[in-house]
Specification:
152 residues, alpha+beta, 4-stranded antiparallel β-sheet, globular
Length: 152
């Protein structure tokens, strides 16, 4: 019985800790990005993972825009990329395993869209991408989160 409990405990720890490593960008860039300034003629796209209390808190996710990883996120992290105006596809790769649905975002020049990453069902559903309920909620997520970059 003790061996079975130890195995279950080890598997739970592995599941909660995730496999991907989060790499943080420098603090100067983070401070500039938190200002949420538009980039002239381009789109300044953010993906922000909201804070989580327990469910899914240990899972790392890689934010992907147009099939390119832009940052590995844990709760209370954001990633950023500058893209051309037009349609873009955003999703997350779950670590370990799986992929969220794809969120299609149609953007315009000088726009600063912020995509939500979080758990549906008030924290008890699936980890996915979507739009924030309000612009102020989206901005707050970025301003309170740490800047993450792609892991190498």
């Amino acid at each position: 019985m003790k061996i079975q409990s130890a195995v279950i405990g080890a598997l739970a720890l592995i599941t909660l800790s995730g496999c991907a490593t989060v790499t943080y960008g420098d603090k100067s860039t983070e401070a500039t990005l938190r200002e949420l300034r538009p980039v002239s003629g381009k789109v300044s796209l953010y993906v922000c993972r909201e804070d989580a209390a327990f469910v899914g808190a240990g899972n790392r996710t890689t934010a992907v825009v147009d099939n390119k990883p832009i940052g590995t996120l844990k709760p209370n992290n954001f990633a950023h990329v500058v893209v051309e105006p037009g349609p873009h596809e955003v999703y997350i790769e779950h670590n370990p395993g799986g992929r969220s649905g794809v969120l299609k975002v149609d953007t315009r020049a000088d726009e600063v869209p912020i995509v939500w990453v979080g758990m549906t069902g008030r924290g008890w559903g699936v980890l996915t991408v979507d739009h924030f309920e309000s612009r102020s909620e989206a901005e707050s997520c970025v301003r309170e989160a740490q800047y993450a970059i792609p892991s190498e």
